Automatic annotation (TrEMBL), chains A, B:
Gene that specifies this protein: thrB
Pathway, per record: Amino-acid biosynthesis; L-threonine biosynthesis; L-threonine from L-aspartate: step 4/5
Record-listed E.C. numbers: 2.7.1.39
Main enzyme class: transferase
Designated name of the protein: Homoserine kinase
Length: 321, 321
């Protein structure tokens, strides 16, 4: 949670001069989003978010992300829509950094999702997949299965520092995942970071998704696997089968899974745990002490890896459900 | 800029259950306020701020601060008003910390105030003094003139570390300030931290003040002196007499100064520079490396001290203006 880029009233006025949004009424830095600086902007015309993209988002990828948000919103999916300036541009520039003005999306994220929240989250994810189906652009998953072994090669000493013997265990997981990774599953645009803090509710109902800056083209079922890991583990590390059933049932209420997709869920979930374990492991040791953003504990995902390693059938709860 | 206290959707629901504000529609941590954690809360009924008080605000002082905000708002001054819960209490409790729900105050602060902004800021300060005049409570200024010499006694080595020879210079300033400090000036509730980031504008017009957590009972002209230091120095360290004239003229448009108040401005401004120099000096060395909030540079106020020391007449621009 951080605001890395400081924006003065003069810089804001300069930016707004390019738009037809009226005069600013309030402007506040928001402690939301780890990768970017976010500001809540209220003008005569309504409420908006200004996002300034920091180093971690590649500027070349912005047309994909912003185009996707626009496409989703135009197709009825509840997400923030980028607002074009008078010249028709979605990407602005603030303090030399790329930036975008997007519409405000109301809603609250939940910290400890109930099974009912998981059902709604699943429904929202299927909705996102459907709404994104006609999107013309595509983007490779830079953090997809093929990237994991090369990424881990540089992190072996970090893994051993966390827990002696871990490196060999991860290598063994990587080999199994590479061997069993499914090919040819139905796919398209996926969110790829569909965690509870990126999903909004109004009361108990799904109200939208935010933070599309990991979105890419990959298997839809992989997005479900990411969500199962993110939504259905208890704080004590156990997998909540009731929540997982609810998440998949909510998804299937909009988009039923093929039997191939369903069969693939265990290995996809194992792989999804690997993906977040590896990037957290990387950030854990790469983040300088005293940085504004505290890195997330890789051990949380190491425990999820262990669950999928030892009990892959857990995720197959759905058979006959 | 920081959010120290993390609040879950469940904790928010628990808090809101004590109020008649309806269901939450959105809730965001705000990068505003250095001393507290602030959240922007939207409900069915409107928009509010939730402030969670961190260690630096003494809980015993909250009835004064919140009572003052309520009094000011009831007397037409534009500031956030604390909202009582159903039991009539203004002070809530979140994660064991005191907290308050206040109304949302729109407006933007300016980074580099023009003379026109200074005039409006002066008008707003006089308005605040007038509106606070009938407030029944009082609170000693814990950071008033009598506190400075004892505070500096513990900071001599820190001053010498910043600039050799500085400690004797500060002692000499303190002696002069103690000798010439005015007594018996008109007084009452002052803001005591009336900096540009605590004052809101709509366009060019004063729109309100925030952050009353240094408010206390002291001389009104001392509040003006604090504001002159905070608003009328250029980035290069020079004192902008045009801005200062505008600030005092704006103030006097609502509340004319007595000749005693006017004559006291130079020594009050010297003292006001001392107060902020000393607390910044204290925080500069007391703040651990890598803390969420970067301490403010005491040298900015050391330079202001030097201006008042060498050219006290600068602040007397107002004679005959």
């Amino acid at each position: 949670m951080a605001v890395y880029t400081d924006i003065t009233d003069e810089e804001l006025a300069e930016l707004l001069a390019e738009f037809d949004l009226g005069a600013p009424l309030s402007f506040k830095g928001i402690a939301e989003g780890v990768e970017n600086s976010n500001f809540l902007l209220e003008t005569d015309k309504g409420r908006y978010f200004l996002t300034v993209y920091e180093r971690r988002v590649r500027e070349d990828d912005l047309p994909f992300y912003l185009g996707l948000m626009r496409h989703l919103a135009e197709h009825g999916f509840p997400c923030a829509t980028p607002i074009a300036n008078r010249a028709g541009e979605l990407i602005q520039r603030v303090r030399g950094k790329p930036a975008a003005v997007v519409s405000f999306l109301p809603g609250l994220s939940v910290r400890r999702p109930s099974a009912a929240h998981c059902r709604e989250a699943g429904r929202g994810l299927a909705w996102l997949h459907e709404a994104g189906a006609g999107f013309a652009m595509s983007k490779e998953n830079d953090l997809g299965q093929e990237s994991w072994a090369p990424l881990f090669a540089g992190l072996r000493p970090d893994a051993e520092r966390l827990k002696p013997g871990m490196a060999d265990q991860i290598e063994s997981d990587l080999a199994r995942i590479a061997r069993d990774w499914p090919r040819g599953l139905p796919g398209g645009v996926i969110h790829a970071d569909y965690f509870p803090d990126n999903v909004f509710f109004q009361g108990q109902a799904f109200a939208g998704a935010i933070d599309f800056y990991f979105a890419c083209t990959d298997a839809y079922a992989y997005d479900i696997a990411i969500a199962l890991n993110a939504w259905c583990f208890e704080p004590d590390g156990s997998f909540n089968i009731t929540s997982a059933r609810a998440l998949v049932a909510g998804y299937e209420a909009r988009r039923p899974l093929s039997s191939a997709e369903r069969r693939a869920l265990p290995i996809l979930a194992h792989g999804a745990a690997m993906r977040f374990f590896l990037t957290r492991l990387h950030d854990w040791h790469a983040t300088p002490a005293g940085a504004l953003v505290r890195p997330k504990d890789p051990m949380e995902y190491e425990r999820k890896l262990a669950v999928h390693r030892s009990a892959p059938d857990l995720v197959l709860f759905g058979e006959g459900a």
